[in-house]
Amino acid sequence: MPANDNSLELAFYGLLNKTRFGPFPKKVVKVSSESDFKEEGVPRFENFRGAPGEVVYDLRDFKGIVSWDDTTVTVRAGTTWEEVISQFPDVASYSVAEFSVGGSLYFGDPIFGLNEFRSLKSALAEVTYFKDGSVKTGQYEDGGIPLFIRIKREKTKLIWKELITRNFKDIISLSDAILTAHVAPFRSLEVWKTGDTFRVIAVYTPIRESLVGAVLSALTGWTETRPTGPESLKGLGWPLYWYFGITQLNEFPSLERILADPDVAAVLRLERTRMWVSLFSFKPLKLPPSLALTPYSDAPETEAFTTGCVLCGKCVSVCPHAELKRSFAYSPMGFFALYSASGLDVSDVATCEFCGICENVCPVKLPILSYYSTKAKFREPQGPLQEEGMIKDVVLVVTADTKDLLKDEIEGTLVYLGVKGEGASLYVIPSTLASLVKSGSLPPDVKTKLDAAKRIYTLTPELDKVLRKSFDESKVALVHQLILGELIANKPSLKVHYPCYLRSDKGACSYAFYDLATGSKTEAKLDYEVTLCSLASVKTGVPSALTLYMKERLLKDALVKLKSEVENLYTELLTETYVEDLDWYAGISEEAREWVKVGAMLQAIKDKSNDELEKVEEYFELVEKQGETTKILHKAMDTKLKRTR
Asked: Where along the chain do its domains lie?
């Protein structure tokens, strides 16, 4: 099915989780305030889970702390628990760090913390929500769409104890002790499992010490610990499969097989007779029938159609393509969420800058560009592409489709390398830049030929990246990166544009490669003094590092020549025309001798314009600081300017 921006975004909202896909909604409302709610619908709080419905209210960006006092903190529904606990680690209730507060409320997440095992829907939170056509405030009612949640903070004096064990039977003994105790004296009793280690955390008030002791005595090795609480949730990362559910506490032994797997992480909340189970895995799990999963959990024993993508959305904020299209669906997250499940043609999503910034931020290190290369559709060249030039010890390499476009940059680079004592040859690869970027490698015959070079230079970050994959990095250099150091040394405050291929995070993109590869004509304005990409320079008019360097070099050469002309004529006048006057005043008046020199300098500069004189004066100061010639020039210029007023 052909795709456009709207159909791609609607399809994304049909994604219920990484193993389930529902019908596309008919309408999506991006929420910025409570006035956006006009009709019944379903919410979307996170990228990785949602509910089916014809109208979807998108609250993913409706986030942030609204207000707080000593006992509560109020947040917008899209705010993640990690955002909350990073500022307020004393909140009494919390869930998995990446989950939103509103999502935890709406979907009934297992809630951890110091909450006496109650849910977030209880009196622990006051909620402003939309239901039945109006916005209400109070205790939350199922089915409402949360907007603001006021969460309780914990100020009570508490005792924290922990036990670390690798023996699953220890946990079974603890669950048996809870079942026979007939009371639940804990504020919190949780088991955190990572690798092959179980960490049991018990929290209670001092007055309950005797009751707690009867339960904890089932095991030895308890130690007092500092409160960690929500911090532990951050260590779970972004697993591909998330399973959440409830089972009876006496069913604990049925989890032994799953919890014995070191690749499965878990958080268990032990209550009086039941247990909340939260499982995190990079592979699908076969779960015991007794574990009743919540509706939004991934389906057991079902492979995720997101092909390794955990739908965290980290790539969205750094993706130049998503920014260009003004749609998160054009990010890698959109690609992985849709291409396997929705039946849409997502080649337009994969046909991007191929910069790879997304791979830098991906928490599970997906080889995103490898997937893209099978779907991307770059334009084909018109006619055969010619191989040109020869390969010497030092060679400047460009592609056939950029040779004419970068003609001035090529000529400037060859001059620059010549000045630096590296006489370089030009070699034109008979390929398009896009084809090399897409494949990620050079044609075998081209690589064989370039093996003979001792040093390879290029002008675009895209080709530089391909070359570095084919040769030792010490053999390859992007000309602009070499020159930048000299430019910054002269002007530390220089405003530099780093193209997306040279960044690891969000920044400005010229889309020059995208235009070349697709035949597009995008608009881009770069507010920089210099760029490190020749393609970006040609498109936007921002000088490349090479252009700026050569311009400054030529200006410097002109100033040297101008200084030399003035200085030579001045010296000649002093030794020929004004020599008698200088000798006459010798030993009589040094002030008079100085003004004789000023007269000679006035003759030397009489044909120079004021602009020329300002430049030569700057150069004299740079080279000679406060030398005598500079001093005489200053006085001569002052005199000349007074005479012309």
From this structure: 19-155, 159-293, 381-543, 552-644
- DSSP letter string over 101-127? HHHHHHHTPPPEESSTT--TTSTTEEE
For residue 477, give Cα distances in angstroms to 440, 471, 482, 495, 505: 17, 11, 7, 22, 22
Fold adopted by 19-155: 3.30.465
CA distance 114 to 9: 39
Residues 293-304, mean pLDDT to the nearest whole number: 91
- 397-453 per-position pLDDT tens digit: 999 999 999 999 998 898 888 878 888 999 999 999 999 999 999 999 999 999 999
DSSP for 404-435, written as a single string: TTTHHHHHHHHHHHHHTT---EEEEESS-HHH
In whole angstroms, give the CA distance from residue 333 to residue 336.
Answer: 5
* 512, two tokens: 């020059």
How many beta carbons lie within 10 A of that of residue 234, not counting itself?
14
Q: How, if at all, do strands 125-131 and 145-152 pair? A: antiparallel
For the record, the structure tokens of 124 come out as 């622990």
State the Cα–Cα distance between residues 244 and 291, nearest whole angstrom.
9
Neighbours of 198 (CB within 10 A): 21
**Phi, psi torsion values for 6, nearest 5 degrees:** -70, -45
**Cα separation of 399 and 404, whole Å?**
10
Instruction: Return the DSSP state at 222.
Output: -
Cα gap 402→610, rounded to integer Å: 42
Average of per-residue pLDDT across 197-208: 91
What is the reported pTM?
0.80
- With the C-alpha atoms ordered 294, 295, 301, 303, is the resulting torsion angle positive or negative? negative
Per residue in 622-632, pLDDT tens?
Answer: 555 557 777 78
